[in-house]
Prior knowledge:
Layout: H1 4-13, E1 18-23, H2 27-37, E2 42-48, H3 52-61, E3 69-71, H4 75-83, E4 87-90, H5 93-98, E5 104-107, H6 112-124, E6 128-131, H7 134-151, E7 155-157, H8 162-175, E8 179-187, H9 201-207, H10 211-218, H11 221-234, E9 237-238, E10 246-247, H12 253-256, E11 271-276, E12 282-287, H13 291-299, E13 307-312, H14 321-331, E14 344-350, E15 368-374, H15 375-381, E16 393-395, E17 410-412, H16 417-429
Parallel strand pairs: 1-2, 1-5, 2-4, 3-4, 5-6, 6-7, 8-11, 9-11, 10-11
Antiparallel strand pairs: 8-12, 12-13, 14-15, 16-17
Helix pairs in contact: 2-3, 6-7, 6-16, 7-11, 7-16, 8-11
Amino acid sequence: MLGINRKLEELEKSGTIIKVGLVGAGQMGRGMVSQIENMAGMRVVVTADIQIDNVKNAYSKSGVASSDIVETNNEEEAEEAVKAGKVVATTDAQLVTSLPEVDVVVDATGVPDIGAKIAWDAILNKKHIVMLNVEADVTIGPLLKKMADASGVVYTGTAGDEPGAIMELYDFADALGFEVVAVGKGKNNPLNLAANPDTAAEEAARKGASPKMLASFQDGTKTMVEMTAVANATGFLPDKPGMNGFVSDVKGLPEIFKLKEDGGQVSNKKIVEYINGIAPGVFVIVASEKDEVNHEMQYLSMGEGPNYVLYRPYHLTSLETPISIARAYFYNEATIAPWKGLQAETVTVAKTDLEEGQFLDSIGGFTVYGSILSAVEAKEKNALPMGLVDRNVQLKRSIKKGEIITYDDVVQTKESTIWRLRRMQDDTFAAKTEKVEPVKA
């Protein structure tokens, strides 16, 4: 956002900074810590990870001297360390969410159930919460936002993640009065519904990535989750279950998003979509009924119309998260949040034939993948949200490959935070569920 650099400089000159608490010192967390160490007016003062060496490594790689890293799970010691200008390494996530010195909490764990607890605890402690955990957001985001609003704090997804980058383009176009026809993202690799950590292992090794994470990209689950977050923020819906997954370059997008009766390839307007061939970018398709606007768009080399593409060719993941932290702190604004409630759902689909009594694993695993449906259709099917899947979910019957798994098909052998919060969300919003029809024209 324009001017945040100057706001941060002014804050530091006044003798204070935004104090950030981070949970999760993996790839995303490490990058964020290093980026923030370069910034004025902000610092990650405490970081939690189950592997304490991950935290110390994140700080040391960012340039923090080892003598300035205090390892503790004690709140008083942590508070004294932060006041003394040092940083805290801990294995206790609750220390991050409860520490009085922390202004904004960031969840970079990527685990839905852990993210649910972090967000819940942060909000109860009246701290802004920034989620790099889209899987948790699409499962219980509406409830967490309602809680945050009632507590006077901000619940937000992050800038730099594709949903946040899409939302920035959407807000720009919507504020200017354009008709927003479609929003979406590029997909990095061809859809492979059978991808798993074993099939992804070789490529993951070359890229220095987690095989499980890479498999979640390849099997489409991550894309479905990300576009579900955008749907819940905008009210847009998938054109069809699972979206279309067109192949195109950027120049071809305006024609694709014409309605079929007008020579295009989609059945509805106001849709979320993914495109093979434009990664790592994100896009918004806009139109206008005003002759003068169309004339100027053509003059500006934006195409012949009636659709035009606004395209951002990059997203910097957690390196942009400080922008969301600053927006929450300075302006009490979210980058992206489920403002429209539960409009879409990423539901659980069998990746292979599954047997009665078998336990499911998790996102990017061997047993299931996610697919986006409208929330109304997901509810009609009683479909199990993908964010509720973990190793404590057991099948009550055999499931065929490609079949949607329902709540009736599973039993939870151990209670979890995200299941409890999802039940609470369903109860809270049950009376407010409205059917949203796709927009034809």
